[in-house]
TrEMBL record:
The keyword Magnesium does not apply. This is Peptidylprolyl isomerase. The lineage of its organism: Bacteria, Pseudomonadati, Bacteroidota, Cytophagia, Cytophagales. Coiled coil: none annotated. It comes from Hymenobacter rubripertinctus. It comes from the Bacteria.
């Protein structure tokens, strides 16, 4: 069963549509207190039409999309019942990563704002709920199918059932590894941020307005324009350091300086409502400088020498040294987001990687290279070209990992289907009469 995002969004961003594109909206399905909007379906359908490049889509395409959207909502409904939550720090990190990526793709923050006719803050606000829902859905899917695995025998059986005249043809693909070191903020920069924040704290205690100072000095773009206001959050939704400091305060109270993974905070508790509380904060992020980046580069250079001297494998070095948690547990290898394998088509590579590995020999490792992470942090990295596969038709010898990933995906989808069948009768479902003919959707009853 393919789970599509109900809010994947227009042009991949998921935060609205460009000026001039009008979509008539309305609720077309309810799963408990979760709703599916007509625009959810139509946006994804439009993307499918675009991918088809003029070829007709199957007549039941909209029904299949609606079925997947309903499953997403069922996942959210059951997550609420089972108290499955994701931490706000994870939501914020994913938001920052996505926004940094889209800014990079379109060229600048200003161009992104012009394209959507919205400020960067409004775009992030629109995207926040969608990202949180997607992370909850992923967590539920992991609970349902995360322990599913396939044996070599199952992989061979899966491949043997594939029609020989329909075997996929793979273009040139590479396996690329990376070890990333973030530029660590030095004590002098940290002290400067703390000193500035202590000065702001003194000014607030002397009578100056917190919100006014937050607008002027806070380096959290999402909340600074709102005077540092973050809104209401439940327990365990914000990073522990922030939450602990906030909940020790009385309404109107001011915290001492609090350090978290995001920087240094000055927090004011505004209100408590049951298990929720609202705050505002001023965030200062110590800056990294050339010296910090150079130190990270020197550390990576030492790691590279150990790899080249065969005293450690690249995979072990990545696990022990890389600050990129997405790849460090995978031997440093980048993953293909489409199928989960480590084989990356050349035409889908990031240009910075493509032009670096274009002249590399298999097995070679680059010197440390400047790098900026998806969430905008200064770093350096070394790249490793593990393999370079010429174009060929799929076979078990060369493509076992990809075929195993496809077999695993099929088995996980079956686990999701079984869960769906078991739980579909435990929720209230209402469908707009216009879509009553969608037999796949009716099976949820």
């Amino acid at each position: 069963m393919l789970v599509v995002s109900a809010t994947a969004g227009y042009a991949q961003l998921g935060v609205g549509r460009p000026v001039g594109l009008r979509v008539v909206d309305g609720i077309i399905a309810k799963v408990d207190n979760q709703i599916v909007l007509k625009s959810d379906l139509e946006t994804i359908y439009a993307q499918e039409v675009a991918r088809a490049e003029g070829k007709p889509l199957p007549p039941d395409t909209k029904c299949k999309i609606l079925q997947s959207l309903a499953l997403n909502k069922l996942l959210l409904a059951k997550a609420e019942t089972d108290s499955v939550v994701v931490e706000e720090s994870q939501v914020k990190s994913e938001l920052d990563r996505r926004m940094a990526y889209f800014v990079q793709q379109i060229g600048s923050e200003k161009k992104l704002e012009e394209y959507y006719n919205k400020s960067l803050k409004d775009l992030k606000d629109d995207l926040r709920i969608q990202v949180k829902e997607q992370l909850v859905q992923q967590k539920m899917q992991e609970q349902i199918a995360g322990k599913v695995s396939v044996t070599p025998r199952e992989v061979r059986q899966f491949f043997s059932r594939m029609p020989k005249d329909s075997l996929p043809y793979y273009s040139t693909e590479v396996e690329v590894g990376q070890i990333v070191k973030l530029a660590q903020t030095n004590n002098k920069a940290k002290q400067a941020s703390q000193t500035q924040l202590n000065d702001l704290r003194a000014r607030i205690l002397a009578g100056e307005d917190f919100a006014t100072l937050a607008k002027q000095f806070s380096q959290d773009p999402g909340s600074a324009v709102e005077g540092g206001y973050l809104g209401f959050f439940k327990r365990r939704e914000l990073v522990p350091e922030y939450e602990a400091a906030a909940l020790r305060l009385e309404p109107g109270g001011l915290s001492p300086i609090v350090e978290s993974q995001f920087g240094f905070h000055l927090i004011q508790l505004i209100e408590r409502k049951g298990d929720s509380y609202s705050t505002r904060h001023i965030l200062l992020k110590p800056e990294t400088g050339t010296a910090d980046t150079n130190e990270a580069a020197r550390e990576l250079a030492r790691v590279r020498l150990r790899i080249l001297g065969d005293s450690v494998s690249f995979a072990k070095a990545a696990k022990d040294n890389s600050d990129d948690k997405l790849t460090s547990g995978n031997g440093g290898l980048l993953q293909n987001r489409r199928d989960g394998s480590t084989y990356l088509p050349l035409d889908q590579l990031d240009p910075a990687i493509f032009f670096t590995i274009d002249t590399m020999k298999v097995g070679s490792v680059t010197p440390p290279l400047p790098y900026r992470t998806d969430d905008g942090k200064d770093a350096v990295r070394i790249l490793y070209l593990k393999s370079n596969s010429p174009p060929h038709q799929a076979n078990l010898d060369d493509d076992y990992q990809k075929i195993a990933a496809a077999a695993l995906n099929q088995k996980k989808n079956k686990a999701l289907d079984a869960w769906f069948a078991l739980n579909r009768g435990t929720v209230y479902l209402e469908v707009d009469p216009e879509y009553a003919g969608c037999q796949l959707l009716n099976s949820i009853n």
